[in-house]
Amino acid sequence: MSTVRASADLEQRTRTIEQLRAGRARLLACVVEPLSAVAEPYRAMTPESREAIIGGYIDALIEAIERDCIDPFLPFLDRIEPYWAPSGLSVAEVIRGIQVLGDACRETAGGEAAAIDQWTRRSTALIAERAVSAVNRQLEEELAWHRENEERLLGLQRVSAAVHSELDLQSVLAIIVEEAQRLTSSAAAVIRLVDEESGHLRLIARSDDATALFGDVMPVDGSLSGLSFRTGTPIITNDLPHDSRLAEEMRGATPLSSLLIVPLIVRDTPIGVIAVAEREGGFSEQDERLLSLFADQAAAAIEHARLYEHAQRRIAEMGALQRISSVISSSLDIDEVFEAIYQEIAGVMPTDALLIGLSRTDGLIDLEFIVDGNERYAPRHAQHLSGPMRRALTECQPVVIGDIAAVDAAPMYRVGHPRTRVRSVAAAPMLQGGEAVGLLSAQSYTPYDYTASDARLLMTIANHAVVAIEHARLYAQAQHLAVAEERNRLAREIHDTLAQGLIGISLYLEQVELALPEDDAGTRRLVERALTLTRSNLEEARRSVKDLRAAQLEGRSLLEGIGLLLAEQEADGVFRVELKAPLSLPPLEPPVETALYRVIQEALTNCRKHARCQRVTVRLALDDDRLLATITDDGQGFDPERASAEPNRFGLASMRERIERVGGELWLESTPGRGTTIRASVPRCHALAVSDD
User: Fold this and answer.
1) Residues 18-61: pLDDT tens digits?
2) What pLDDT does residue 85 have?
3) CB atoms near residue 662 (< 10 Å)
4) How far apart are the first and last CA of the chain?
5) DSSP 488-518
6) Cα–Cα distance measured from residue 123 to residue 437, given in angstroms and rounded to the nearest whole number
7) What is the structure's pLDDT at 185?
8) Where are the beta strands (DSSP E) in 498-575?
9) How high is the mean pLDDT of the chain?
């Protein structure tokens, strides 16, 4: 009995399969209209999508009947499941669609309707179960999405409160990049604002992880940041190296793969962009909407902080100008004026280095004040200026150099510390009667650190400073003239009294020498010694007159004065002189410079008179806050103890007194036959307002 029934079932399934296969084409055509009547999503499907669903169901039904199991419907469900989730089909509409397909298949199978109904019920149950699972998953995803959005919106609310309660611009920028990175779950975030001078988008804030991913300056043309800035619209790219909107050379150079950029807009005007990069899975439209909401808050916060910073800066600028005006009216010391100008400029703009130069009639410039890295350097005279700096003088207008490395000009002459590197410069001429009489230049180690407003402020300070500098220069010139007049008076006194008296004594001694009998050898020796001593003192008197009139340090730096002194000594041809010294020295107070100069002068005089040397070396070296001078000769040397005991050897005592009066120390080393070394150590400044000249 069972064998007969199994055979009958097999025949029935075979007939059903044959009828379905034979009527497949008709089924595909006739089921479209009733299926479209079930729900709008079915009508909206493309013919290809409908054919895939109808044909897939028929094929799965035929295979299920043939194998007598439900398993063939499982791959069919996997293929059609992506259709119903995005289309908005409900579970009931999916089941109703399957029933329409089952009814069409039953009509095609004719007498085998019962078998078709059985498989329709089984497939409907399976599809309903799968549809419910899919809907549940979709609901869970939507719930997770809503929870994530709720968390993001709460974060956005917190960020908005934070940025609007903070007025320090750098703090606001730091909050924005940190929260933009967190809100979008990205690897890095940056803020770019448009630069007023160049028109480029300049990087002004970045997250810690963005250091190696973004350049400092981005052009508005050819970059996605520039495109977002120009159009005022967000931009998403999840395949940046192949994005045709990006310039070809930039596509090949970028290390990024995914990027989301939104513009920062204030009062319908873009001021910059926020960019986030490198999110796992790429960025979505939801990320774009969220970051755009955040950007609206961030732009307002940045604008508020910038306005506050501008107001604070204006207050600081006015205070600086007031203090400089006070210096103008209260000080005639040019170093004090220079220092006040430097301190006030450093208080209102970046000032890693500062130069104050005064123009010369020969077209060169004397750099009277040099600071680099908070360290003061000695003046440099008769210097050439680079092209951009020279333009500030010739055009009588302030000049800003965003990045020296990018300027198409000859390298700028460096006058400060050899290991520092100035990148950006603001320079302003000091004008007097419409003529540039000097130059004021603030400099930074960071590129693009100055704006046009910085240059205008520097110009205002320069206009105030020129009055103070001119007053101080006139006062210093008056002092120099007074000192020179006193030197000349002393020189005349020595020449007219001491020198003339020594000349008279010398003449009388020469007459006595001629009048002595030939056999009076003892008296002749005494006269010869007296004549030699008189002539030696006359020579010293003449040298004193020359030194008083020359005033070697007047209008010169210490290095320049020493160089001139050594040149004069070598010109005498008695011995060779070599100077070993740094290219520049820190400024010393006048008494310290004078003491050191006189010690070197006295040492060279002793070499000429006593050492019988062939070579003298003068070395200058810096050691912390002191300057060390060493004078070494290769002469005959002497016994220091014996020399100090001689009553007429007061040169060494005089040198020691000069150095000690300015807080320094002096050492003497000499051995007969092995030359002499004198070392003098002096401080860069001293507490006593004394001068011995």
Assistant:
1) 877 877 788 778 877 887 787 777 777 888 877 788 888 888 88
2) 58
3) 24
4) 142
5) HHHHHHIIIIIIHHHHHHHHHHHHHHHHS-T
6) 98
7) 83
8) none
9) 78
* DSSP per position, 219-263: -SSSSHHHHHHHHT--EEES-GGG-TTS-HHHHHH---S-EEEEE
Q: What percentage of residues in the chain have a pLDDT greater than 70?
A: 77
Q: State the amino acid at position 465 in one-letter form.
A: A
Residue 320 has pLDDT above 50, yes or no: yes
Which of 35, 40, 38 lies closest to 55, judged by CA? 35
Residue 679: what pLDDT?
93
Q: Angle at Cα 684 formed by Cα 679 and Cα 689, nearest 5°?
A: 105
Per-residue burial over 293-316, b = 16 or more CB atoms within 10 Å of its CB, e = otherwise? bbbbbbbbbbebbbeeeeeeeeee
Structure tokens at 67: 């194998």
Residues, the chain = 693
Q: Which residue has the tokens 């010169």?
A: 556
Please work out, in degrees rounded to the nearest 5, the angle formed at the alpha carbon of residue 462 by the alpha carbons of 426 and 553. 100
- Strand boundaries in 259-321, DSSP class E: 259-266, 269-277
| Token representation of residue 496 | 């007219």
Rounded Cα gap, residues 609 and 574, in angstroms: 10
Closest CA to 271 of 213, 334, 195: 195
423: Cα within 13 Å, side-chain hemisphere: 8
Is the pLDDT at 525 greater than 90? The verdict is: no
What's the rounded Cα separation, in Å, for the pair 98 and 53? 10
State yes or no: pLDDT of 130 exceeds 60.
yes
Amino acid at site 51: E
Q: What is the pLDDT of residues 480-499, one digit of tens each?
A: 667 666 766 776 676 667 76
Inter-CA distances, 690 with 412, 571, 680, Å: 39, 33, 19
Q: What are phi and psi of 189, to 5 degrees?
A: -145, 145
Per the listing, tokens 């007498």 go with: 111
Is 0.85 topped by the overall pTM? Answer: no
Question: What residues contact 634, with CB distance under 8 A and at least 6 apart?
Answer: 613, 614, 615, 616, 675
Is residue 538 scored above 70 in pLDDT? yes
Q: Residue 131: what residue type? A: A
For residues 63 and 20, what is the distance between their CA atoms, to the nearest angstrom? 11
Query: 10 Å Cβ neighbour count for 689?
Result: 8
CA 294, chain centre distance (Å):
28
Per DSSP, the three-state class of 690 is coil
pLDDT digits (tens, 9 = 90+) for 427-459: 999 888 778 888 899 999 888 888 887 888 888
DSSP state of 190: E
Instruction: Read off the amino acid at residue 515.
Output: A
Taking the C-alpha atoms of residue 60 and residue 71, their distance in angstroms, rounded to an integer, is: 9
